Amino acid sequence: MPASRHHSFTLVVFCGGILDASLATDFVMVSKKFMADGLDPTCLSGTHLRLITDTTGPFLFGRDDLGPRSQIYDSSEAANPFYHIAGPGGLKREILNWVRNVSTRVATGDRVIIIFMAHGLDGSRIILKSQIGTEYLTRAEVTTALATLPQGIRVLLVNEACYSGSWATIAADTGSGRDVVVETAASIGEQSYNYRSASGRYRCSLFAAAFIEELTTHPEGRIDRHYTRIREEMRHVSPNQDSCTPLLVPSSRSLWSHNISHFVLTPNIATAIANLPSDESRHQLLLQSRSRARTFWARHRSIRSPGQGHANDASEGSDMELGLIYSYLDELGSAAAGQNRCTLATACHLVIDGRVGEEMKHRIVNTIAWQDTQMLRVCELVSLLVDEALISPPLDQRACSELAKKDYEAREGLASRVHNIPGVKEMAIPPFHDDRYIDIVFDDAYGMLVDAVYCEQVLNPMAFDIGKIEATIAAFLQRSPAV
Question: Which biological processes are named by the entry's GO terms (predicted)?
């Protein structure tokens, strides 16, 4: 049977910084997977990976509770990048230019695959790190860009950031005349999580480990089963490991019965099929032992306790700063595996392992203190809003989460509006070019503020005055220093 005449256009983007080793590991593994499969992906990064490998060591991909991990990248390989570094215009321009360029080259039946390894903020935006600093790419901007693709195109969009579930609506928004599937590492309002290995380190994301395994083991699996297997693998983790629920949303119900090769068609598969439902029995002898053993192991493996061996006693530290770092990790617990918290947790482990010096230790302590400052600022700000009768005393976090589930679109719109208030962005990211801090994403203070305002919008809609609330927030943040 002749190979498919259709073409695939693939973009894989690493949007993290020099301490985002887990995201970078996912980026390398997905890129190498697609290159080995002959998809010839465009690989784009805002950061030189050599800066990461020199600091954190070689990249190890996989879950050691499911099988052996493999070293996939180190400093010697990083000396000759396989990816393109974003230029002075930044990552955002290059991403949108890539989509615009592809839209002039694709034809009916062609495939467009876009995968983002990024941090995310509530409000449908991901964070892009590059030499120009911090940028934001929103769901609306991606939707607008994909709408430039002609009819008859097949699009797979993957976002593994925290709060990525809100991007699932892109499937319906761009699916008119196109087959679109959106996969996200987390559901609406959820953080996404990295896997914590037996050594207590964060090697890759839970989603990427399952996603790569699925594409490798079941390259022609039906989309509904593709999603189920990824979800189940992410669900089966040790009690010490937090997880999240991925989403897969197609633009039409009929796509559930299609094979994943409808969107990710590698040349070797293309020679065997011509865009028809595949006969999985042709692969059954090869895959049977792997899938059965994997399912058994996922359900019956003995649970290890990653990180139990790390020192919990701050007095064992060489000084007070090291003791604070130990205490910070203990306080985070399993939440440290969250994508947005993992950067600072990784930096802490680098200090504990002796891989970085005193300067990095000082920066970590400063960043922990900066986070505390943002939380104190928001607590003071919320109290001010209550005192001025602009909001009611906020509900507890669980109650706020339940309210958000009732109308997440409304909360998401409010989160975007709050994010654009002058001074709010600076609560989520420390000053970019300030060497006193680690380049992290911190969404706790921002999320607390959004929760407080959103509860008022839902519970007292007649008295809700977003204009006055915005003005009060902006005035407070202007006179309250962020650092």
Answer: proteolysis
